[in-house]
From TrEMBL:
This is L-gulonate 3-dehydrogenase. InterPro entries: 3-OHacyl-CoA_DH, 3-OHacyl-CoA_DH_CS, 3-OHacyl-CoA_DH_NAD-bd, 3HC_DH_C, 6-PGluconate_DH-like_C_sf, 6PGD_dom2, NAD(P)-bd_dom_sf. Gene3D superfamilies: N-(1-d-carboxylethyl)-l-norvaline Dehydrogenase, domain 2, NAD(P)-binding Rossmann-like Domain. Keywords: Cytoplasm, NAD, Oxidoreductase, Phosphoprotein. The lineage of its organism: Eukaryota, Metazoa, Chordata, Craniata, Vertebrata. Residues 9-188 form the 3-hydroxyacyl-CoA dehydrogenase NAD binding domain.
Length: 319
């Protein structure tokens, strides 16, 4: 993988996720060229990234082996797509979550790069088979779905198009590992990928429990943050099962599978997320955290600070 070091990655779209990807790739020593179709947006992104990278260095939280100045020297912004794509081996698309906009971007990009360039999308919920439908050579297309904020939450879901070559998945996997992310491979596309399917299952049951008057909003959030979430930051649900019975997974299934099935069979239908239950849940959460910007911003800052600390702890505790 060291052969990729110093190579060029083009980031298309310089909003929240484009800027984060740029910082992650820079930390791994890659040259990053940022393009945005809104004039001035890409150069504005550079100013923002410079500020963040310098702050991270001061806080001893800068990722990678390079100094802030070294990382920033690898970064450039472009208002011209062709210029931005020159020399790139990997293109990370980060434009609005809009199918047509993304299809158009990939169509344009394909016409400006050679066959070997990997075309990667950050989409949260568009299916590869839809998104890459206007690309001629879909064997080099892939989704690399990050989690916000990618600088602290390292998971990247790699989702192939049905035609994607295994070698393309391998390069994306190596690249993500090389820059310190934690890639996982989906073997085929599925709506919601893996992360959002699990997340939506948690949201749905939490919602049903509050809606049905079983528990308050405050307390269901504590069930995650003080209960399940404590171990899920380090071990997943399958390892949890394996460790939670004296003799491991087989023992766990003997002891608990009947109970799990009984409870799972009581789960209600997909919530509507509207009407009276929604109004009640909105009221409850807004009493805890008012929806005015100042309160939301303060909680987001707290979240990011805590994630930063957790990322540091995970680094020290790894693997
Ligand atoms: P954003 O709105 O912050 O940024 C989008 C940027 O794309 C803007 O700067 C815009 O000017 C630019 N843009 C739009 N059309 C373009 C085009 N044709 N060519 C070049 N640039 C163009 O959006 P975001 O939150 O950064 O999301 C980007 C992608 O990342 C989306 O697909 C989203 O689903 C995905 N994603 C977002 C999150 C998140 O939490 N925000 C998490 C994971 C994945």
């Amino acid at each position: 993988m060291s052969s990729l070091k110093g190579k060029i990655i083009t980031v298309v779209g310089s909003g929240l996720i484009g800027r984060s990807w740029a910082m992650v790739f820079l930390s791994g020593g890659y040259m990053v060229k940022i393009y945005d179709n809104k004039p001035g947006q890409a150069s504005g992104a550079i100013t923002e990234i410079r500020k963040q990278i310098e702050e991270l260095q001061q806080a001893n939280m800068l990722r990678g082996n390079l100094t802030a100045a070294e990382q920033l020297s690898l970064l450039s912004s472009h208002d011209d797509l062709q210029q931005a794509l020159e020399g790139a081996f990997f293109v990370q698309e980060c434009v609005f979550e809009d199918l047509e906009a993304k299809q158009t971007v990939f169509h344009e990009v394909e016409n400006l790069v050679t066959e070997s360039v990997i075309l990667s999308s950050s989409t949260s919920c568009l299916m590869p088979s839809n998104m890459f439908s206007r690309v001629q050579n879909r064997t080099r297309c892939i989704i690399s779905h990050p989690v916000n904020p990618p600088y602290y939450v390292r998971l990247v879901e790699l989702v192939p198009h049905p035609e994607t070559l295994p070698a393309v998945m391998d390069v994306a996997y190596s690249l993500m590992t090389d820059v310190g992310q934690a890639p996982v491979r989906l073997r085929k596309e599925i709506d919601g990928f893996a992360l959002n399917r699990v997340q939506y299952a948690i949201i749905a049951e939490s919602w049903r429990l509050v809606q049905d008057g079983v528990i308050s909003v405050k307390d269901i959030d504590l069930v995650m943050s003080e209960g399940l979430g404590m171990r899920y930051a380090f071990i997943g649900p399958i390892e949890t099962m394996h460790l939670n019975a004296p003799e491991g997974m087989v023992d766990y299934l003997q002891r608990y599978s009947q109970g799990m099935k009984r409870v799972l069979n009581t789960f209600g239908p997909v919530p509507d997320f509207s009407g009276e239950p929604a109004a009640r849940i909105i009221k409850e959460i807004c009493e805890l955290i008012p929806a005015e910007q100042e309160h939301l911003t303060a909680r987001r800052e707290r979240r990011d600070q805590l994630l930063m600390g957790l990322a540091k702890l995970k680094n020290e505790a790894s693997p």
